[in-house]
Amino acid sequence: MDGNISTVIEMKKKIVTLLALLCLTSPAFPYDREEMINISVYEKINPAIVSIDTQIKYGLSCGTGCVVSNDGIILTSSHVIENGNDITVTIYNGKTYKAEVIKKVGRNNDLALLKIKTDKPMQTVILGDSEQLKVGQKVLAIGNPFGFNGTLTQGIISRIDYSENKIQTDAAINPGSSGGPLLNTNGEVIGINQSIYNPDNNISNIGIGFAIPVNIVKDFLKSTKVAVK
Questions:
Q1: pTM reported for the whole predicted model
Q2: Is the Cβ–Cβ distance between 156 and 174 less than 8 Å?
Q3: Fold (topology level) of 126-222
């Protein structure tokens, strides 16, 4: 009898030990490494991304913007605000602000700076280095395609067009994404999403999008004397 009791006790001890080991070796979260990178980048950067609505003659022009200075200076694509007025910026928590244009350049570089008045410092994006990019490198995009604010997509750098200063990517970019960031997996902005290859007039996304390299953006910001990270 005593032998049977001892055996049961030993078995219970082994079960407890096994359960403890399982607890130690089980992942704390049900996400793999790639998912954790995506989640981390999104949670770090999304508060610095805004949506932009510009009143134009025949309706609204909608796009995305990146906060580049914590006093409310926002980078976007110039075509988002072209021929428009009454610009409204909506930040990640739903608050809206009226914006004024500080500076913009034409469609070739397609960049513009806006300013909003906020009552506290804003979170900003971090600019990377587009000279370090490689075809095949994983990238993420955050934007407001078709008004779906704070949308994250992923893909790779498909091609780098040095003659036209364009980064080609298969990360989904749609109308409303213009002005948003193309990011590396460290959460650094490596390009500003500009356009898609559009042979069917926005009927479908065929996986060919373009972004302006961030080093061109840096030159634009230097010309306006905006201090960024």
A1: 0.82
A2: no
A3: Thrombin, subunit H (2.40.10)
